[in-house]
């Protein structure tokens, strides 16, 4: 699996998909996976935990004349399976973004929407190169799909009406990108993908333009990101926790994307925990079984080691306090203490400023906690306490200590109220807000404060 003869090898670039709700992120990921599967025999894609690996061979099979595989030495593309900028900002690696590249999905009829703008802000802040997927071209009135044609030729073959409608919408998106400070153009006109954002018209529904998108992503990585992909394949594995999950027979496990080095069964690892870094020994490295076997056998197969870039489930004792978004580091060539300090330093970068009085914030991951804290700072809402995890009795007790009425509130982002906290909440003078969209959560809270203040006048 891992090539031990070369210390320096190029790993697969990690790709994330972002965009406004309903613009087609999930459909695009499904289509990429689906067409990759139908492209070749089983094994044309490798299903990882939390990610899908599309090898170069498969991409070139799908892209036909668009790509010459001999131009590439990067192995393919690893797509993170959970779309959305929430998961994107959660997934950090050494202070930066875990994803090397992003696909920003924009509904070609709908243009930029609030979450498109939010995603752009995050991409700008993290300096992540991206490509725009102008999705749903099939909904253009009069659109007539040209099977198997590159999207540029397919567009040329459309009726005048479809052409002009689509052009208008695409130029609207290019204009909106320009308003956001990015120069952009249709991808076949872009020479330098670092200076200009390539826009790829496509349909996640019919699959038109999807090979073009994969080609652009591959070309962008190969031309501009090759150095960043050079890793020491035998070095100590480094990764990021996607999710903490209880798994029958294994207890608490962490789904991890490995972006550097190699993780081996039996390795000692340090994982960012809710209170302290967790030091533990790997009991099993798990991957999904090959697609055909999923229903007949246990869901996972054990592997001896896993090299970057890959998604893997780590089973080890004491992982129940692990945090989504936190680092995972293998202890090799260094002492446990050194690695613990590294993990602490990495976590300390995620700073949330708290005050003596304010709201209690709970979020599902470190990244979302940070995003919540940023949004609240902009809205000038002070934070009393901010933590990762579901809403527990302790949080209600803390919220009650806030000494201004409007502050006696808990803002929960992507978290649940624990059952044993339900009666505490009923009996407390604390208002709970829960939402899966940050700006709505902040807006709900602000509206509540305004109403309260108005009632008092
Ligand atoms: P997400 O919220 O961004 O993940 O969006 P989804 O992938 O769930 O898509 C939202 C809706 O748009 C679903 O009903 C999809 O079937 C539909 N959709 C997505 N892509 C396309 C497309 O290319 N063409 C058409 N006609 N519908 C699409």
Describe the structure in your own words.
Belongs to the TRAFAC class translation factor GTPase superfamily. Classic translation factor GTPase family. IF-2 subfamily. GO terms for molecular function: GTP binding; GTPase activity; translation initiation factor activity. Residues 10-226 form the Tr-type G domain. Residues 1-6 have low confidence and may be disordered. The longest helix has 20 residues, at 160-179. Strand 23 (359-363), helix 9 (366-378) and strand 24 form a beta-alpha-beta unit. It is globular and about 65 Å long. The strands form 6 sheets. The chain has an 8-stranded mixed β-sheet with strand order 3-4-5-2-8-9-11-10, sandwiched between helices. It has helices at residues 25-39, 56-63, 85-90, 114-126, 151-156, 160-179, 210-224, 336-348, 366-378, 393-400, 422-427, 438-456; strands at 8-10, 14-19, 46-47, 51-55, 76-80, 92-93, 96-97, 101-107, 130-135, 184-186, 197-201, 230-232, 238-247, 251-260, 262-264, 268-271, 278-281, 284-288, 300-303, 305-307, 310-315, 327-330, 359-363, 383-388, 409-413, 431-435. The protein is α/β, with parallel strands linked by helices and 457 residues long. Guanosine-5'-diphosphate (GDP) binds at residues 19, 21-27, 83, 135-136, 138-139, 203-205.
